[in-house]
Design a protein that fits this description.
4 helices; 5-stranded parallel β-sheet
């Protein structure tokens, strides 16, 4: 009798787009502890390349103030393009500069904002609240 192998679906994946390496590594560690796979990008162009590669990203966690050179892509445009590639994508924006008046109008639909410095619990709540499947975290 032949054995039947069932394919286990990969865990939901989060792309962490953050120019500060220590903040990026910390966010990735917290998110991985929740059972998510993570992808990493140091700027908007790198992040867009991850989406274009077909990586199974379900959530984008992006700093909204990352330097990306004179012809760079800003993070608000990154989120818009990423949602075009993956319409069901959830987005969490973060910044230490504070949210300026009217900025939320530029966010993709359903996007949320997490102020830096954030606590471990703040990040967990944002990730679980924005990317949980059927209201439950993966695992």
């Amino acid at each position: 009798m032949a054995k039947t192998h069932t394919k286990k679906s990969p865990p939901p994946a989060v792309l962490v787009a953050e120019d500060e390496p220590t903040v990026r590594a910390l966010a990735e560690s917290i998110i991985e502890d929740l059972g998510y796979a993570t992808f990493s990008a140091a700027n908007a162009r790198e992040a867009l390349a991850v989406f274009e590669s077909g990586a199974p990203i379900t959530l984008l966690f992006t700093d909204i103030n990352m330097p990306d050179g004179p012809d760079g892509l800003d993070e608000l445009e990154l989120a818009r393009r990423a949602v075009e590639i993956r319409p069901s994508l959830r987005v969490i924006y973060t910044s230490g500069g504070g949210l300026t008046d009217g900025m939320t109008a530029l966010f993709v639909e359903g996007g949320t904002f997490l102020t830096k410095p954030f606590t471990r619990q703040n990040l967990i709540e944002a990730v679980q609240g924005e990317s949980a499947i059927d209201g439950k975290p993966p695992g």
